Automatic annotation (TrEMBL):
Name this polypeptide is given: Signal recognition particle subunit SRP72
Gene Ontology MF: a single term: ribosome binding
Keyword Phosphoprotein: no
SUPFAM superfamilies (alphabetical): TPR-like (SSF48452)
GO biological process: SRP-dependent cotranslational protein targeting to membrane
Biased amino acid composition, Basic residues: 542-552, 633-644
Main location: cytoplasm
Subcellular localization(s) per the UniProt record: Cytoplasm; Endoplasmic reticulum
Domain Signal recognition particle SRP72 subunit RNA-binding per the UniProt entry, residue ranges: 525-579
Bias-annotated ranges (Polar residues): 523-534, 592-611
Organism listed in the record: Pieris brassicae
Role played: Component of the signal recognition particle (SRP) complex, a ribonucleoprotein complex that mediates the cotranslational targeting of secretory and membrane proteins to the endoplasmic reticulum (ER).
Length: 644
């Protein structure tokens, strides 16, 4: 290399070093390009160029240079930069392949691999790798690694809530948030809320201590508040949760994933009550680019809610598209079929819905039975449940028994319980657990008139609960056709003398037991208060005299005069009642001076006299002693207070 070329190269490296130290990556990129023009094989300059592209977030250009065959020799040792560029371009599978192809797994590659595994939702492998990194690394980033590890644990708790997960000390607000999220994912919402509130307070204090504003503190803590709202929503406090979601969305956070989750949860709260608002919220929850910011579990729930919203909005075609997406992208075929069947039922296509549900197999048989029962077809529902794999489940047995009894088909119900007994008779644990089933079986057999089967059901119940004397008594009663065996079993019952003392004959004979438990209790207490004297002793007892209360008279009552016989009648029915004056219904309308038929009607000078006998009014006329002039003066005094 000539001296001039070497001096130019040294000068270019000095400029590159100056720009890198001042974080001026655009000028550093030009300086690195200048060095590569002078010496195309300079590996350090090529490395600086790739780092400048990454610092400028131009990952696509960095990956193009790394994949260029001309630079294969220069990019041979840059596996970390290549994998990081692929990771930031949302190519996690390619990034994992690049990391695994590296000759040595350096600490930087280990941490990047853990991030890639988290993005690929391989949480168990990610947790194992983070545990190894935390154990073998000591530097200033220990809190960040623990925060990432706790986030992985939270997702493990969402997948398997009963798993044995590690505990973390809440030294930072990120750790507190992840600990609270883990509790929420495991269904411990009441325990999660105080932890999340503590994390919110610590987050706000941390941002303010670092010189941030209150608005920045609110934006940083928005994700914690949304998690609190989720816990409240799952606890049944939907109004409080909706208020928090709306307040967070009013602040317009920059995190697109946070907006999507809050909007989706508001749609769930709205249900079918506010469809217009739900459609607006769902639009925010399904924006482009969210597929890289939300995990598959969150995206599947958003699509599921979008399909249900399409049913509420009467959009069956769009609902079907959402169901297809659920099946293809998220492998949620069962849920998709349930939603599509619900849409068909709402459109009145019952048979298509049944065919779709039964096509999936026995898993959705109960849903098909529910559709039939909603249509009132009990016989078809009974037939479907009897042929299903769930026939001997306790809940299904109860449904079948109820339906058969409603149709008065006691023989079929008796036959059903016989089959149930044959199915469970060799399993002692199940026999003990199904005591309610055997009680129902005994009743069904009795109604069907099958005394032998009823006795067998009672015997099974005694086998399930050997210490229950009432069950034994019922068995003795059921064995009326086998007196010898009944006597042997009756010997194990307590003697009748022990039971006599607890029986109240008077309470049993009382007819008031039909009125309810409170009436019976009062009657029993009154019977117990009375002394059981000899017959006829009640003749000597005096009856309690009822206390007479004095009648209260009004203060203006005049006892010297007889009371008004019409005092209990309404005012309008009394003889002295007069209608209100001053109400004129036939009002003459028109301009002044206009002659109408109404004027002639009310002009008494034009009326012809007619002879008529006036009927005597039953009302009593009240005569006033005042003259007409005095009444006129009083009316004038009353009218003085008016203002016109």
């Amino acid at each position: 290399m000539s001296a001039n070329k070497e001096s130019n190269l040294v000068q270019a490296y000095i400029e590159l070093n100056k720009f890198c130290q001042s974080s001026d990556y655009e000028r550093a990129l030009k300086a690195a390009g200048k060095i590569l023009q002078i010496a195309p094989t300079e590996q350090k300059a090529f490395h600086c160029k790739i780092v400048c592209y990454i610092q400028l977030h131009n990952f696509k250009e960095a990956l193009v240079h790394l994949n260029n065959t001309k630079h294969a020799a220069l990019a041979a040792d840059l596996q970390f930069e290549k994998a990081y560029a692929q990771y930031r371009l949302n190519l996690p599978k390619d990034a994992l392949q690049t990391v695994d192809s590296a000759p040595e797994l350096t600490p930087a590659l280990k941490e990047l691999r853990a991030q890639i595994l988290y993005r690929l939702e391989q949480y168990q492998d990610c947790y194992n790798l983070y545990r190894d990194i935390v154990k073998n690394t000591t530097d200033d980033y220990e809190d960040e690694r623990k925060a990432n590890m706790s986030a992985v644990v939270a997702n493990l708790g969402a997948i398997n809530p009963n798993a044995d997960l590690p505990q973390f000390e809440e030294t930072t607000y990120e750790l507190s948030y992840n600990v609270g999220t883990t509790l929420a994912m495991r269904g411990k919402y009441n325990e999660s809320l105080p932890v999340l509130k503590k994390a919110e307070q610590a987050c706000s204090e941390s941002v303010l201590e670092d010189g941030g504003t209150e608005e920045e503190a609110k934006e940083e803590a928005a994700i914690i508040r949304v998690q609190q709202a989720y816990c409240l929503q799952q606890s049944g406090k939907e109004k409080e949760a909706a208020t928090i979601y709306q307040n967070v969305l009013k602040e317009k956070p920059s995190d697109q994933a946070l907006v999507a989750i809050a909007s989706n949860n508001l749609v769930v709260i709205n249900r079918d009550s506010n469809v217009f608002d739900s459609r607006k919220r769902m639009k925010a929850a399904t924006q482009e680019g969210l597929e890289h910011k939300l995990n598959s579990r969150q995206r599947a729930k958003i699509i599921y809610n979008q399909a249900i919203l399409a049913i509420y909005s009467n959009q069956p075609d769009f609902c079907k598209q959402c169901c297809v997406k659920l099946t293809r992208e998220f492998n949620e075929e069962k849920r998709a079929i349930l939603i599509e069947a619900s849409s068909l039922v709402k459109d009145g296509k019952i048979q298509q819905a049944l065919n779709l549900l039964l096509k999936y197999g026995d898993t959705l048989t109960l849903a098909a039975a529910q559709v039939l029962l909603a249509q009132g077809d009990r016989k078809a529902a009974v037939k479907l449940l009897e042929e299903s794999a769930f026939k001997f489940r306790p809940a299904v047995i109860g449904v079948l028994c109820t339906l058969l009894t409603a149709d008065n088909d006691y023989e079929k119900a008796s036959k059903l319980f016989t089959e149930v007994y044959e199915h469970y008779k060799n399993d002692d644990e199940k026999v003990k657990a199904l005591r309610n089933v055997w009680r129902a079986a005994a009743e069904a057999h009795s109604r069907a008139g099958n005394a032998t089967a009823a006795a067998q059901a009672h015997e099974t119940l005694v086998r399930a609960a050997p210490g229950d004397k009432r069950t034994l008594a019922r068995l003795v009663k059921a064995l009326i056709h086998e007196p010898e065996r009944a006597r042997k079993l009756a010997a194990n019952l307590p003697p009748i003398t022990k039971l006599e003392g607890n029986i109240d004959i008077d309470a049993l004979e009382s007819s008031k037991w039909m009125m309810g438990a409170k009436i019976v209790k009062k009657t029993v207490q009154s019977k117990q208060e009375q002394s059981p004297g000899t017959p006829g002793s009640e003749l000597g007892q005096k009856k309690k005299a009822k206390r007479k209360r004095k009648t209260k008279l009004p203060p203006s009552a005049d006892l010297s005069r007889p009371p008004d016989p019409e005092r209990w009648l309404p005012k309008y029915e009394r003889t002295a009642y007069r209608k209100r004056r001053g109400i004129r219904r036939d009002v003459i309308k028109g301009s002044q001076g206009m002659t109408t038929n109404a004027v002639d009607q009310y002009d008494m000078s034009k009326q012809t006299p007619s002879v008529a006998t006036a009927a005597k009014s039953p009302r009593v006329e009240v005569k006033s002693s005042e003259s007409a002039w005095q009444r006129k003066q009083q009316q004038k005094k009353k009218g003085k207070g008016r203002k016109w």
